[in-house]
Amino acid sequence: MLSQAYSALEKLGRSVVKNSKRLVAPGSEPESSSDTCSFGEKKVLTKEEIDSAWKRVEESSVKTLPNDLILDELELDTARFLVSAIVRRHIEDNHSFLLPPNAISPAGTWSDLSELQDNELVYIQSQTYRLPSRTRIYLFLRNALWFTVPALRFYLEKSDTIRAILARDEGNSFGLYEIDGDSEMFGYAIYCSGSYFNHDCDPNVRKERRGRSMAFYAKRDVPPGEELCINYIDLNDVVKVRREALSKYWYFDCSCRRCARELDAEV
Ligand SMILES: [Zn+2]
């Protein structure tokens, strides 16, 4: 089913990706936004406005794509990621009894994912232009899969499943590198258990990618009661850069002992 869904995406993708100049780097703002969901100059959206934007796209026809529905490469990658998550949920919902334990996903089940922090509101409020991007991806997926993989319609008729995944992707996913933090990121994944590690700028746990899995190792002896923490950002950065990155992408102000020590030293 997954290969069938991927092939439907590629087919629709080839027909609508017409302008490679629309390629958007993570964190950069696109030059224009889709008419499918536009908010003009308004900078901070409310939860109700975000809900109604999704409602509007849910109500559009599955038979015709909006003329301006062109996904850039990043959006197409996101669409593929979403398809893998939807197919995984479908298997869990309908066929899990056929599978041996842990065959669904060593990364976690749908209910594990649902329990992670929902970052939709804070993410869209900080990067408003991502909302039209996300609704475009939803429309694209729905149109690509509605007739080609009807078993997935249940997850696409409403936007709930797509929103739930995207809301947890941000702030919970792990970048996948050839060498951790020292090479170009070639993908990302959500490992539900791993998402429970908090950040520390002097972490006592290191993460190591093993193929498609992520392993976690203690870096030193950890006394009873000490929290196990990993690092979300490059530890070689200075305190100001680290704290800005954590605030921007993980929505918290780091108050770890290393940050406190280095902030004191700056005064
Ligand atoms: Zn810190």
Automatic annotation (TrEMBL):
Top-level taxon of origin: Eukaryota
Entry GO CC: nucleus
CDD domains per the UniProt record, alphabetical: SET_SMYD
In terms of Pfam families, this protein maps to: SET
User: Which InterPro entries did the record assign?
Assistant: H3K4_H4K5_MeTrfase, SET_dom, SET_dom_sf
Q: Which residues does the UniProt record annotate as the domain SET?
A: 1-233
Q: What Gene3D superfamilies has UniProt attached to this entry?
A: SET domain
Can you name this protein? Answer: SET domain-containing protein
Q: Which organism is it from?
A: Collybiopsis luxurians FD-317 M1
